[in-house]
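re: the backbone from monday

yeah here it is again, tokenized this time
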């Protein structure tokens, strides 16, 4: 362990290194994926020092979302790369920084972000996008940007690939400085555990409601898929004053949790043979103002699209769709007035906007506590994946 203390309850840290690790290779624990669907191997690995414009982070908490599940299963063959350290939702403390890094310092409480923000490219400078030309989300990328090499290796020196700019299933990870957010200057009151949620799931869902759809007070909303991201959409819509939030899921056990997050109506598609979109149109006098597809299923996407009001309804895609899926929409259907758009990381620019979002969450605008349903040691990562697969958890926090 490089730090004598964990971060305190408000997410800040006064920890000091108990041994000098700066500039040295660290031996630590990680959960390594060696093949599609194979059990994770929790083993000691080597984490090399950060290079220019890189940051090495001690991970305090990491969790699992469906993107990790898809990558672990190898559902998209073109994205397969093994051995690999998955994980992209986490919180931690900066252990050391490489040359040229000034925006984060050793000891800072941070979250890694899979969709980076360099602040200099045309995308980062545009108010119309939260993408980054160099450090944007890229599931094909498996090495560091600077030199095209990995910062992870087995104890006998064999490289281990990176994942989504983050690789958080490791006690220590190395990320590009564009892919880490410091909360040193944020006045938030969140615990470090809750900060973990801002690294992906909650930001992705709430941001889709706020930044992409711009849900308005008194509007009607349908959320397809009541996992953590879908419930974050509902929470964001509730915070914006939506008057009706319809939750759709085939798992009735999720409805109790969803009610606490603002969902007002529930539909289990298996309850009736009548097309789902017809049922929602009937409930809402022609369709909802906003629909959100959070499943990665093209049939569900079509229901979400047709559930939106024909005159002005907007459908937002959040689900990860495996290739070679195509939009299940005829071009002429767009002429009715419905529109459709994709959302990455909820439209948030991570480095410049997450600190303020953390403050809003700390002030109770968005309620985070209900999202964390389980906590397990990293050695039980396979159990954590089973909880997600069976729909028994929203976010299971893993610790080292």
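seq for it, each position gets an aa:
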């Amino acid at each position: 362990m490089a730090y004598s203390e964990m971060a305190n309850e408000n997410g800040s840290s006064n920890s000091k290194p108990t041994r000098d690790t700066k500039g040295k290779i660290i031996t630590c624990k990680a959960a390594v994926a060696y093949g599609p669907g194979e059990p994770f191997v929790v083993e000691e690995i080597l984490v090399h020092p950060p290079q220019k414009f890189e940051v090495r982070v001690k991970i305090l908490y990491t969790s699992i979302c469906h993107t990790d599940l898809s990558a672990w299963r190898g559902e998209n063959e073109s994205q397969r790369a093994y051995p690999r350290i998955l994980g992209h939702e986490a919180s931690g403390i900066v252990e050391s920084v490489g040359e040229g890094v000034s925006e984060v310092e050793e000891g800072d409480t941070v979250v890694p972000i899979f969709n980076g923000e360099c602040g200099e490219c045309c995308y980062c400078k545009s108010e119309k996008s939260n993408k980054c030309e160099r450090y944007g989300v890229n599931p094909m990328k498996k090495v560091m940007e600077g030199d095209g090499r990995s910062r992870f290796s087995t104890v006998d020196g064999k490289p281990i690939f990176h994942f989504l700019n983050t690789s958080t299933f490791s006690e220590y990870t190395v990320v590009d400085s564009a892919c880490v957010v410091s909360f040193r200057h944020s006045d938030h009151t969140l615990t470090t555990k809750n900060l973990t949620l801002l690294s992906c799931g909650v930001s992705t869902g709430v941001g889709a409601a706020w930044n992409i759809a711009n849900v308005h007070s008194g509007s009607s909303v349908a959320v397809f898929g009541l996992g953590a991201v879908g419930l974050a959409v509902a929470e964001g819509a509730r915070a914006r004053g939506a008057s009706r939030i319809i939750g759709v899921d085939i798992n009735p056990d999720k409805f109790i949790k969803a009610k606490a997050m603002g969902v007002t109506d529930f539909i289990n598609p298996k309850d009736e043979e009548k097309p789902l979109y017809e049922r929602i149109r009937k409930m809402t006098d022609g369709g909802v103002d906003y629909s959100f597809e959070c499943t990665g299923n093209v049939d569900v996407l079509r229901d979400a699209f047709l559930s939106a009001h024909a005159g002005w309804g907007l459908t937002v895609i959040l689900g990860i769709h495996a290739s070679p899926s195509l939009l299940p929409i005829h071009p002429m259907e767009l002429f009715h007035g419905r529109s459709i758009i994709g959302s990455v990381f909820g439209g948030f620019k991570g480095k410049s906007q997450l600190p303020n979002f953390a403050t809003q969450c700390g002030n109770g605008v968005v309620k985070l506590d209900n999202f964390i349903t389980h906590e397990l040691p990293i050695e039980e990562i396979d159990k954590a994946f089973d909880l997600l697969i069976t729909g028994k958890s929203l976010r299971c926090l893993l610790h080292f």
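The domain at 24-198+369-397 is CATH 3.90.180.10 (Quinone Oxidoreductase; Chain A, domain 1). The longest strand covers residues 54-63.
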